[in-house]
Amino acid sequence: MRVLAIGECMAELAPAEVPGNYRLGFAGDTFNTAWYLARLRPDMAVSFQTAIGTDAISRQLREAVAGCGIGTDHIRTVPDRTVGLYLITLTDGERSFSYWRDHSAARLLADDAAALARAMEEADLVYFSGITLAILAPAARKTLLDALRTARAAGKRIAFDPNLRPRLWSDMGEMTETIMQGAAICDIALPSFEDEARWFDDADPEATADRYTAAGAETVVVKNGSDPVHYRQGDAQGAYPVPPLSSVIDTTAAGDSFNAAILAGIADDSPMEASIARACRLAGQVVQGRGALVPVDPARVDG
Ligand code: ADP
Predict the structure, then answer these.
(1) CA angle, corner 135, sides to 130 and 140, nearest 5?
(2) Catalytic annotation on 256?
(3) What does the pLDDT look like over 51-66, one tens digit per residue?
């Protein structure tokens, strides 16, 4: 299966050992999922679609993506823009994030409809998120949703993590409406209950699963931190208890890594509960490490 992830990858500055020093990395929700998928399944063709600038950090980002075994053929370059940046600050062990992404090149990732269509043509499964939608101007958002709808009609499978981020939206009504437009064109929805409950008033994870099923998703997997994962797949449904962990260090990218294992399972036609078990083992390793991209052991994911 060929997978195309669409979204923003940013430069990350994380505190280094020496106080006041920072380490440069690259991360972003859909990119993180592509990264974990490439680690879990090195044999799989995983590629990433975004837009970057033509400056040195943009070239470094492209090289970093390629260096992880992720295809870069569909990364657009836009002169006069550069990659978004975020900086992590540690205060008494708590991480907080500052972002500089308002004018990132990635905001233009859907400006070329023909290029988007070409990228999707080369994929069997296309993955995007609510953050991918949030960063786009309304016209570009429509271009992306139209391209996804066309790809789906041509038989591609579409996977969507709603990843609700109110800070990226100017209007909460626009956020929830656009998220449900994304839901309406996906086959696989991967929401997180805590976010969904807040913005859609879902009473419980079943209500979240019902809403995405009603929107048209054949498969829905509802994450809920350390609480059970609820799923629907066609007529089947169930809840899978998350194995408890002795320690949780940093939950960054827990959901992104979880999604990667679910997508790998869909590629393999694995039974849903086996995929969720692997997703929990992968996310369990990720929350016990620091940062978005934790060098996990794929053998431990298989159990
Ligand atoms: P998101 O990062 O999208 O908010 P969640 O916080 O719901 O996602 O976490 C995704 C997955 O990560 C969970 O389904 C679970 O497998 C794992 N996970 C997250 N937090 C914990 C925790 N405290 N203990 C064990 N597993 C966890």
Answers:
(1) 100
(2) yes
(3) 999 999 999 999 999 9
